[in-house]
Amino acid sequence: MSTIASEGATKRTFNVRAFVNRWGILLVLIGMSALLAILTIDGGQSIFLKFRNIVNILRQSSVIGIIALGVTYVIITGGIDLSSGSLVAMIGCLSAIVAREIYGLPVILPIIVALALGFLAGAVNGALHAKFKIPPFIATLGMMVSARGVGFLITKGRPIDNLTQTYQYLGQGSILEFGQNFFVPIPVIIFLLMALIAHFLLSQTRFGKYTYALGGNEQAAYICGVNVDRHKILVYAWAGFLTSIAAVVLTARVSAGQPSAGLMYELDAIASAVIGGTSLQGGIGTIGGTVVGTLIIAVMNNGLQLLGVSSYWQQILKGVIIVTAVVLDTMRNRKKMGK
Amino acid sequence: MAEEYILEMEHIRKMFPGVLALDDVHLKVRPGTVHALMGENGAGKSTLMKVLLGIHAPDDGAIRFDGVEHLQMDIHSSLTHGISMIHQELSPILHMTVGENIFLGREPLLNRMGWVDHKKLYQQTQELFDELEIDIDPTSKMVELSIANMQMVEIATAISYDSKLIIMDEPTSAITEKEVAHLFRMINVLRDKGVAIIYITHKMDEVFEISDEVTVLRDGQFVGTEKASDIDKNKLISMMVGRELTNFFPKEDADITDVKLEARNISLGGKFKNVSFEVRKGEILGFAGLMGSGRTEVIESVFGVYPPESGEIFIDGEKAEITQPMDAIAKGMGLLTEDRKMTGLYLPLSVRDNMIASNIDKYVSARGLNAKLIEEDCEGQVDALAVKTPSLDQIVNNLSGGNQQKVLIGRWLLTEPDILILDEPTRGIDVGAKSEIHKLMTKLAQAGKAIIMVSSEMPEVLGMSDRVIVMHEGEKAGELSREEATQEKVLQLASGEAITH
Questions:
Q1: How large is the average pLDDT for residues B281-305?
Q2: Which of B14, B133, B328, B360 could form a disulfide with B333 if both were Cys (CB 3.0 to 4.6 A apart)?
């Protein structure tokens, strides 16, 4: 009798640990939100929890969030992508130029141009890495610097505005509107949709398996017959594709293609993935984690703003959170290995 | 009519720069048999298997597998040709599940979109495990498994390819006796199905228990193929070592005086246990043993790379606390590591910068580094060791292996050590430089230094050591004086046998 009871007990404690391991980052997000909900109570109502505020957080995180989805893939293969911020600017500008020059044509055209360009730029990143054996840091750094230049070149440094209503709708519109009180912005819909696709692609398909395998042990993957080079190129191309979606959303939201847009977005995206538990060593990471990581940064920024804390503090705290997330992760892994 | 042989490798020759790794080697394996491949470290077994898998292209020779002639194999098609291999060094993808690892590269799919059929994947893994009587959860992650269970997964993976030929490279190095028995049952089932198995091992008992035929290689040459039932252990050992010691070793006597360093019962979990030894001033102590027997781990542990968990170390009779290499260096020790490129040299830096790396403190002054003293010291070592380099500014990566090794030795000599640990001091360097390093070791011993040498080369162990410690699976298998030490005795101890006289 007593043995059974104690076995049950060990099982239960084990489950708690597994639960924390799996959902820890989500618990952090919930805890942060709960704290902010209480701290921002004003006149009997929490400002943080207001529907409008929550939607705002989601909308603000959608561009970085979409980029971070692709960056998660890249980091899981053991690589890095520094080019996303500049690509957002370059692709946004080109897409805006196409949208303006070919006024009257269906809105789908500038979008197709954007997506194709994103896929292509990502594939170039991947090919530089896979075929020329350049470290991804360098390959994507080159792309980062050049793409920024291309953005300024094709716009002569000026914003491209005068976009069609339909194009702007992608960034500013919303659906499921029920009066003033309930609506879902299009960028949020796009973010969630892409997150779902990215999640299933990573967890359910062969493409996803190879992504993990490359980061876990490239040599083993090669010996098992995985076409390593081709897969690397596809992963970077997929990241570029997602970046181009973010570029379209951002361009539509601000109603212009700006060559200076997306500054430092690559680092925010990497931070989101890392906070969400993606390991820079490769082989570990989930889309769910990255979405939560994106939201943690957005919630923190929003909360500090509501509390009237200076934006400089937001910067400092963001840095602290990134480092803390990785330290906790490293400690957890070390414990696992020690066992 | 079935072919007599599933695999015929004939007249295989493989040159590496400066080394003839395989010289006219033959290997013929019959279907439905276990064929043991034996030989000392460096005999060419791994190279031969790499040629078979297509990792190396042979310079000469013919490979005939399953009735088809191949000029050279291709690593990807070797799997589809029906050859699979259990690698000695485990290569699992730690954060993927057992099932995902086994089916990597050939996942069952639900549709053309590449959607993986997880249910089928785990079902097939479970069926495979049921058939092989392996009790591991297919959905657990590799990182959660013990080393032994990882090895069982590796074995199951090789079997799951339904290969006609399975290469097992020391499959029992990481598993317990119970699992060895299990593996042998699996091998017997495979043999009955007509699968051919090439079995590489250093364990004599296993050879006679499991194999039908034995092929022996020595120094890259083919010694012979025998029926296992026709030979005994002594015959096998003499086939393996049968060379004569023609190499000249410039070992001269030195005055062997007081005990300089003593290790008492040092242990490190999973690496080695209860190892004791002492080395005296003027003595060269050799560490022999097979790869993975714990030789390198013991001496690196003494040097503080990963300190022993229990046991004590004494220097000059006093207990020494060595928890990191810095402590060891401060106590007059130097360590020439096994892999000079990985853990020794700063390849893109100059000869000068490499030489002073362990001794920079000596050259620091208030006005920066003392360039003149550095110049003098480095020139001194370059002359004394006869390092062939155009200047001290030469990038070390551009030197030959022998000269790189001399630079590293020079680095340690600059710290004026009393105890010098040399791990594979002459691995991969040419004969001339080898002999110079051997001469240098003698000179250092005569100067009263205590020298510990780890070596996989039998002639070097026997030719240079005053005393030999033989390791076997993390334990000290025995100790032989210079007079007692013979190839046969060292090999017997290294394979875990008692010495027969």
A1: 91
A2: B328
